[in-house]
Amino acid sequence: MMRRTVLQAGLLWLISFTLAWSAQDRIPVRVGVFENSPIVSATPGTPPEGIAIDVIRWVAEQEGWQVTYVPDSFDNLLVRLDRGDIDLLTGIAYSDERAQRFQLSSQSLIGNWGMVFRHAEARIDSLPDIKGKRVALMRGSTHSQALIELAARFDAPFTPVYVDTYPQVLQAIVERRADAGVVNRVFAALHAHEPDLVVTGIVFNPIFVHYAAPKQARPALLAALDRHLAALKADTRSAYYDSLRHWLEAGSADRTPRWLPWAAAAAGSLLVLALAVAGFLRHQVQRQTGELQRRAGLLQSEIEQREQVEAHLNQIAYFDALTRLPNREGFRIALNETLADMQGSDERLALLFIDVDRLKNVNDGLGHGAGDLMLQQIAVRLQSVLRAHDHLSRFGGDEFVVIVSEIGESLDAELVATRLLQSLAAPIDIGSTQVYSSASIGIALYPDDADSVETLIKHADTAMYQAKGQGGNRFRSYHAQQTARVVERLTLDTRLRQALERGELLLHYQPIVALDSRRMVGVEALLRWDDPERGLVMPGAFISAAEDSGLIVALGEWVLEAGCAQLRDWQKQSKTNQLTLAVNVSTRQFEGRRLVKSVEQALSRTGLAPECLELEITENVMLIMNDEVRDSLDSLRGMGVRLSLDDFGTGYSSLSYLKQLPFHSLKIDQSFVSKIPGQAGDTQIVTTILALAKGFELEVIAEGIETQAQYDFLLEHGCQYGQGYLMSRPQPADALAAMLGRQAIGPSGQAIAGAGFTINP
Predict the structure, then answer these.
(1) Buried/exposed code over 367-398 (b: 16+ C-beta within 10 A; e: otherwise)
(2) 552-572 and 594-606 are packed helices; what angle lies between their axes, rounded to 10 degrees?
(3) What's the pLDDT at 615?
């Protein structure tokens, strides 16, 4: 007996030691939780629960974490996270400010957005209706701040009623302390059925929910979460999707009210008792039966309402409201399911990334309502030419994506792309207006070009940009060289930004000559890049990249100010008093009236008179013509700045715009000048432009004059001004300054007595 007692005591000690050793070996993790059901719920007295908690517990089991939950209000938890009092915070919405303040998981837990509920008696159906109303907001929520900013833009200010949790938001509405309130759509999925509450059509601020760690913390915890969460989201049968179904699906078996089985048993007992004492209890049985039927009816009605709400939220979560097509999240689910079905087989699929050409022109010219109608009709046309098993989604903006399955070779995907382009060939009716559209399509194959979803999307997107860069209305298949070109373009963009910062840019100047008097009347400023590695780089090698990246705006402003400063310096040296400076302008500089501000600043800083500056604007400005651009042109002319329409006849020519807009001159493109007087077609174009300009009382400048025959022809037909290698090549500032003091220049730009080209002193 004593030996058994000793053995039992030893066994208990060994178990206790093993448990204590195991607990010490586990990694302690403090997790902040707050009330944001069903993502996370921290009701006092009960263990935390919710989607975020299910994932934490699953990861903790895999990683050997010893999790301790720290319940508090969301605002307080943010402070604790700043101080490092907790290691993780669950369910934090992404924002740029929070990404700077904390470490956020790369993988999002769930997509979410803000929704507005109202009291049943409050008249709030759209955003303007909240003006002057009381709106309950959860402190610290990104949706709360987003609604405040959105309401300000729509001139619909309201009175905030701040609370600490989403349940308190709904409580404030029910108790009539607020007319409406903001919650997120995941919370709404569980509470949309509550009495006295009505969901409105106000949906805004799409965000993604993440985990957060302190800024200075080691990234190991978030790295583990990201790794496991990515694997869970890739498997539709994983614990992650089990959790979503558990918390978000309405009417599941485990949500059946506990009184329902009891009520059924009570009904049976009452029925037996009624058979025994039918006469005495018949009335009681009828009353109880009626009550049960009433409760069963209420339960069924509640289930139906929740199913309707779930269907509505599912539509919002996975479908695009404008086109009714699956959205970005719906596309990813469909692609993951298709790839999962293909595992272990030799099947292939193609991803077609579609970008609608020139949608911005429709939005700017006819309004965003017209752009929306155009997108709806485009969605119908694209869908109409796809096969039953192909999958079309709207990625957002003017982008669509098609999953083309069951293909044997790349030609099958190209045939689908051809049908898609052909479907957009006919004009689109927008009210009484017809517009034409086209698309750029990029094609990437699985598994030929990529074996993961993200890489497949990236490669299709790269091929689409290749098609767009070649003029649009075409498709291109992905090739590895395209990625190299993208990297090359990114490198060029970086080098160009560094060149601007390091002072590697400079200007050359080409004289503009009055053809009749042969005097120099102006100069055109031409940008050059003095690259330490490649030497002098012409703008043709980098302007396109600058246009694509938006750097062209900063480059244009630098050229404007540097050119004005140089001309003013020449004026101070008495080199010239009457020369004008011509500067090329990109259409992107018109955005936000930035061009007007840039010109005002350049003239103010350099002291150059406005009438000495001439801005050369390409015909592409007609494609972005709106009230903002028109007002900018009027303001510039009102300042005294001259305006010239550059490369006339090569782009979008519109006589109506030519008549209405405040241009002083036209510039004939060198592609026409180079073929006169020998080729009849180009000769006719040039003479027509000259006659047209005369009718509109516009001056004409011909560029690219290289022969005496071209010079004589232009002079004979009334062209006032010209520039080209016949008179002078573009010169550095010091070389041109030397020319300003001479009496004549020859064809190569050197001083030649009697050459006939004189300088206007």
Answers:
(1) eeebbebbbebbbebbbebbeeebbbbbbeeb
(2) 30
(3) 94
